[in-house]
Amino acid sequence: MFDFDATLPLMAIQFLLLAALLNVVFYKPLGQAIDQRADYIRTTKVEARERLDKAERLAKQYEQDLAETRRQSQAIVAEAQAEAQKKAAQQIAEVQQEAQAQLQQAQKELEQQKQEAFRSLESQVDTLSHQILEKLVGSQMV
Amino acid sequence: MHQSSLLLTVPNTLDSMFLAKIEVGHHLYWQLGNLKLHGQVFLTSWVVIAILVVASLAATRNIQRIPSGLQNLMEYALEFVRDLAKNQIGEKEYRPWVPFVGTLFLFIFLSNWSGALVPWRLIRLPEGELAAPTNDINTTVALALLTSLAYFYAGFSKRGLGYFAKYIEPTPILLPIAILEDFTKPLSLSFRLFGNILADELVVAVLVLLVPLFVPLPIMALGLFTSAIQALVFATLAAAYIHEAIEGHGGEEHESHS
Hints:
heterodimer; A: mainly alpha; rod-shaped; B: mainly alpha; 62% helix; 3% strand
């Protein structure tokens, strides 16, 4: 069982040759393949992460832009509303003023016409009362 | 010694059941000059090596970014041994040691499993029997000695002669123990692997001898498990020894880590 002979050194040499051979046909090419794959995965991952970052940055920027634009549009709408309101108020005031003026003028005219009417009526009253008096008392008395 | 068949000599009546025959210490001897070799160890180790090389070649023939099939399997194996080396030796130094530690693991693992899964006994040899290469003490001692050389080389190439400082590092009183460690490490490595694999095969063989059907199956499954664990243990310990040689026992570098 424990008989040592030339098997031992020859087996050692054979093993070293096997290690050298496997180094050439197994460890080196497959190791390279594994390392290259690891590199590829690493670079692809980094690239993907960069792209993701970029996309997120863009999305954020778009959101900011959107918010900004919305704020601007709201401001514009508010401004326009305010302006319109002001304009309407102004116009209403103007129209009211005009109406007031027309009303006043109409009243004035009415007053004038009334005065005139009164005046003509007074003169008529005079002549009429004169006539009535003539009729009643007679013309010689007057 | 190699002619002793342990205590478990098979009775002649059971000789016909060649599948259950237990032979320990019989080897197929090859003569190379005036050197004696254990032929059956080399035969099975060549099968294991062929499987490894062919699988590697097939996996790397057409490398895809998205792996599939055999490439996926071999990449899994590579990542496994890489993680093993990385965990033991550390992120900074592990890369040059991946081929050594990884080949240790893959070779031992495939050897063990080939011994457990391949019905080698169907192939009859003039003498001895085919079994896992790690079943032979020569193989395990060779691997263990290579591990020793590897960690000495790692220590010297990293720290130069300062490597010797590790022998007297905490206190010079431990010098004999530190020296002894250099002998016990390969001894324990080789005997652990050898003993586990041989014992597993013997237990299975004895059970098959006693109850040929079904009963040995759980033990065989357990054998697969221990085989895998032993390969892992061997490779992990080898990597740990290399790490120790690089970093030193409680050296400044190590302390700055922890």
